[in-house]
Amino acid sequence: MEPFYTALNAVKVLRSSVGHVFDTLGNGVRADHGEENKDNKFLLELQELLSTVNVNLRELDQAVNSLTPPPGPFNLGNSTYLTQECTLERQALYADLVKSYKWTDKVHEYGNLAVTLFSQNSLKRSYINSSSKRRRMQTSSHNVPPQTVDQVIGNIDRQFSDMSVTIQRPYATNAVLQITLGRILKAMAAFKGLMIEWVVVKGHGETLDLWTESRHKVFRKVTENAHAAMLHFYSPTMPELAVRSFMTWFHSYNTLFSDPCKRCGNHLHSALPPTWRDFRTLEPFHEECKP
To answer: What is the pLDDT of residues 16-42, one digit of tens each?
Structure first.
């Protein structure tokens, strides 16, 4: 039973360390981080907590590997006598107990399958190796000086003659762009550094803000597609290219009401023009016709 208790204790330690990570993420940057390089201090603290989680996970994996799987079904022991219980409120206890054992078996089986699949996947979501020593954090798309953002947006504004881009900063240093695409539509895009966080597309006769959607279905569809493009072009290592790619894609809506669908050849389908633009070719498609 000693290896079993060791594994249970490893699970408890891992849950505690993971809880610390979520508590730190929930609290965000605190006052004790100071005013200078507070973002880097917060990221270093988070990296240290994730390293602890990684160590605890390896310890749990070692503890689980030391366990010997039971040769047969679980021995219910004295709980088998629960079937002889005559009290009405306790008669269903035995069936629930058997279900819990079966559920535990399935969790163990699925856990082994998950470990096998994850061990075959060498890809990492993070660009930081938590097992390596601490080093200088690379500047991300979240932490970019306002001057750099203004320069990138200014170059994009000069690139397209029929699309005007105005920069506002109503919320501290983060930029909010007001985009006017000819006489077709207008939009607002909220940035965090050089990362696009939110886009709202409306018609020229509507009040432009970040909180309400358009009353026209065509612009609500364009807003949904803009959110998909925002995620598609996101690149933490090349944020300037990501913004330029998104704005080039968004500029393709200058023919929203004039170009027909590339698949069906019609201008309207379900009373809507082609509201989808292919990410690579920028060709227009109806929502039902897109590849």
So the answer is: 999 888 888 888 877 777 778 788 888
